[in-house]
């Protein structure tokens, strides 16, 4: 039903059949409704078939703590890459990136805390960076580290690189995929008429209070928070974290991939003020995905 196909074999691969992150959200909502089990979307990296998902459902342990570090491809002779989630907290979109990079490139992704509905999402970039580095360094104790972040995730990747450098570790690569400097975002918000935005801000604050109350009730009862609550809360936590973040100087080099239609010229200027070793910019046709 989700893939709009007449027939799916138990060993057919979800991604090869045209599946993507948006369809995966619908699929896992159906799975949760049918089996009362809330699997993280990243399960599809290890279990992309009906047969493998059945095994994952049978072996699921609700009390097990979810790791933010998701293995997309562990094998390969190249240095491993670590990519940070965008504003929705999920990392399924990096499946396509893994295919484009080829079979010799190890690739890991960092998923937001709370995508399983069993923990409160973090709402500070510095907290996210420190938590993700703990998991990355458990896998790779020494640098050089190769980091990348999509959209909001670029802020977290930048902060991770800054924290690594402060510890005396080497960062081999820092890539920002269409990441807007938070100073540009804040200025854009201030220039909008605050009166016209007031109803939206009040509504969002009320939503936040309601959803935080829902989190308290569900987590206090030892039950996972339904996706209808934690999806909004994840995005809202990322949005607030981005607004609060004040990037500090980073002595290394930044590589930026920017969509032509996203208007990132001012962001590039801001990143250049912070990057001691300069900024390399690659413009890509299209708009922010």
Describe this structure in words.
It is a single chain. With 289 residues, the protein is an alpha/beta fold. The protein contains ten helices and seven strands. Strands 1-3-2-4-5-6-7 form a seven-stranded mixed β-sheet. The protein is globular and about 55 Å long. It starts with 20 loop residues before the first helix and ends in a 5-residue tail after the last strand. 33% of the residues are buried. The model has no long low-confidence stretch (mean pLDDT 86).
Q: Separation of termini?
A: 25 Å
User: Percentage of helical residues?
Assistant: 40-55%
* Structural class label: alpha/beta
Question: Helix tally?
Answer: 10
Placed side by side, the strands forming the largest sheet appear as: 1-3-2-4-5-6-7
What do the pLDDT scores average to?
86
Number of beta-strand segments? 7
Strand content: 5-15%
Apparent shape:
globular
Order of helices and strands: HHHEEHEHEHEHHHEHE
Largest β-sheet summary: 7 strands, mixed
Specify Rg, calculated over alpha carbons.
20 Å
């Amino acid at each position: 039903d989700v893939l709009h196909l007449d027939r799916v074999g138990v060993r057919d691969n979800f991604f090869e059949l045209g599946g993507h992150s948006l369809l995966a959200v619908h699929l896992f909502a159906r799975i949760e409704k049918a089996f009362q089990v809330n699997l993280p979307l990243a399960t599809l990296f290890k279990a992309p078939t009906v047969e493998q998902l059945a095994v994952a459902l049978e072996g699921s342990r609700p009390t097990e703590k979810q790791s933010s570090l998701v293995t997309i491809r562990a094998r390969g002779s190249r240095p491993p890459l670590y990519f940070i989630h965008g504003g929705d907290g999920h990392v399924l979109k990096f499946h396509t990136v893994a295919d484009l990079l080829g079979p010799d490139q190890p690739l890991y992704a960092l998923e937001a805390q709370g995508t399983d509905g069993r923990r409160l999402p973090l709402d500070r970039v510095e907290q996210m960076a420190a938590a993700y580095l703990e998991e990355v360094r458990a896998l790779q104790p020494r640098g050089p580290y190769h980091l990348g972040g999509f959209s909001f995730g670029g802020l977290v990747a930048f902060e991770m690189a800054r924290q690594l450098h402060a510890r005396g570790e080497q960062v081999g690569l820092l890539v920002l995929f269409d990441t807007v400097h938070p100073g540009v975002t804040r200025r854009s918000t201030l220039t909008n008429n605050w009166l016209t935005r007031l109803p939206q801000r009040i509504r969002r604050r009320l939503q936040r209070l309601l959803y935080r109350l829902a989190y308290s009730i569900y987590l206090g009862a030892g039950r996972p928070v339904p996706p209808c609550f934690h999806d909004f809360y994840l995005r809202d936590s990322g949005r607030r974290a981005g607004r609060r973040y004040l990037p500090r100087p980073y002595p290394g080099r930044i590589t930026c991939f920017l969509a032509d239609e996203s208007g990132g010229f001012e962001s590039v200027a801001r990143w250049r003020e912070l990057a001691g070793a300069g900024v390399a910019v690659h413009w890509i046709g299209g708009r922010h995905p």
